[in-house]
Write a structure and sequence with these properties.
46% of the residues lie in helices and 15% in strands. The chain is an alpha/beta fold. The protein has 2 domains: 201 residues, Alpha-Beta Complex (2-enoyl-CoA Hydratase, Chain A, domain 1); 47 residues, Orthogonal Bundle (Lyase 2-enoyl-coa Hydratase, Chain  A, domain 2), CATH 1.10.12.10. The strands form 2 sheets. It has a 6-stranded mixed sheet, with helices on both faces. Strands 5-7-8 form a 3-stranded mixed sheet. The mean pLDDT is 94. Bound molecules: 3-methylmercaptopropionate-CoA (MMPA-CoA).
Amino acid sequence: MTKEPKDITWQRLPPSLSAERRGDIALLRLSRPEKRNALDDTTVLGIETFVMSLPAGIKAIVIHGAGEHFSAGLDLSELSHRGVAEGVEHSRMWHRVFDRLQFGKVPVIAVLHGAVVGGGLELAAACHLRVAERSAYYALPEGSRGIYVGGGGSVRLPRLIGVARMMDMMLTGRTYGAEEGQNMGLTHYLVEAGAGLSKGIELAERVAANAPLTNFAIMHALPRIAESDPAGGYLMEALVSAIAQGDEEAKSRLKDFLEKRAPKTLRN
Ligand code: 1HE
């Protein structure tokens, strides 16, 4: 696979982030290992810049972390001088950025290793697929720090692991290992140490090969349909399904299958 130069728009990213384009995949690396990829405002806003300035032709994103950990969560050093009103504003800023990631243009795959803690876990939860290396572990130490999740964790994490588990993690500081995270449905794939990024890229390439309109529907319609009342959900599904199949891309893909040019659905 050829390595292409960084896109010019990504040069505005802060030093705590680095981006790279590989064909139609964009890689975003949390690059602040000396602070365990703690998420300060500059980094969170940099994630927003990255997703809002994706160059044309990017079809999937892989987010990973430099060093021994994915992310130690919120940069706690920025917290001491924040009042209540600023705290609300700060949390709403994280919500906006993570929403732009989740409901952006293309699917995002998180590659997790080491600490995936607090806001780091909230970031991972906003992604569409999660790959864990065996070193990954998950915790919500907010309880012991005297704070509360603020990056959408109360909304996204219960949908992945349930309110009861999240309550335990927050009340007792319980940490889950990579295998437990995999078994409870927090992650989709579990791989050996050092194999996360290549797995993430492999998945991103598969995702990128889908019809863009189908990926859009999966990202934007599926989670909303799943949360709506069944009658509204069926109607929305019918509309999305009709829109997708009416697209030229669907017609040519179906023709390829019927004329035996398309790959079959095989077991992995
Ligand atoms: C940090 C942070 C941070 C490390 N903010 N500076 N998150 C937490 O409560 C997790 C806090 N961090 C840790 O528990 C540990 O750092 C780790 C288990 C992740 C890694 O341990 P270790 O031994 O590899 O590293 P370290 O020696 O603890 O940290 C290295 C440096 O990173 C050190 O700074 P230095 O200047 O002394 O070298 C640490 O202070 C710094 N560092 N983590 C700031 N989080 C939107 S709301 C979300 C709410 C939350 O995310 S709460 C959870 C916060």
